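To: structure desk
From: M.T.
Subject: fold request, one chain
Message: Could you run this one when you get a chance? Sequence is below, nothing fancy, just the single chain.
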Amino acid sequence: MPQYGVAANAELARFASTAEQLGADSLWVGDRLLAAVAPSVGYAGKDTIPEQFRTGIDPFIALAVAATATTRVRLGASVFVAPWYPPVQLARQLTSLDVISGGRLLPGFGIGWSPEEYQAAGAPFRRRGAQLDELLDALDRLWTTNPVAHQGERWSIPESWVNLKPVQQPRPPIYLGAFTPAGLKRVGERADGWTGVVQVPGGVSIDMLDWQRQAIDAAATAAGRDPSAIHTYVRINVAEGAPVEQVAEAVQALAANGYPDAFVDLLYVATTTDAHLDWVERLLTR
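Reply: Done. Structure tokens follow.
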């Protein structure tokens, strides 16, 4: 979804409905809170943050717009920065999205990278992985039990009735974005899906994806889970100026090597809705 920079405007509904009509199978949002003037940690291994992140539409609102403008596409997040959100409020937002979309939500979670965003969200930056684990525990209870109760290190939920439940049963599939050993192990142990990442140009490494996927499968097997039940979406991050044809080749290469489901980050490819849709149409046609 054109969620950031000058492309973040009132035409999200038109983008979503047109992309669906053009043949897209899923639409995705990201989760950026703010762009620090002097970041202690930059974006994607750099020491800066893209100017586009200074303007961003809320991901929950963007998904709600997409849900009401479409009828078929799945609605994904890559990724919600889980520790920013109290689990009860997060579950209410996600459950509402699953209900109004008729069960099309693909919630993805991660732990982020910006200490300044954590500070602004009032969340501790340390032990982010442990916070993610606790949040997933609480979400599972909120989605699958009633009454609901949770007592954890950071959050507690007094025994309460929560009648609104997701359309998808027993709950929406949980995707995790991960590339570190600890993160990949968590995917194998408890996730329904994984969002791997490649770069265009020059970063479509099937060997790296396979290595990461093997780590996930090993963790799943050790936890007594079926690795084949863990789905993969590959996120394709597109550099400014990369041609559509190069992205199409990446999609085709991924599909030919066992990764048929991919989505494309449009952050740098266009600045208007019409230009975004032209780019989408050329990619899907190819």
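Reply (cont.): The first strand starts at residue 26 and ends at 29. Let me know if you need anything else for the meeting.
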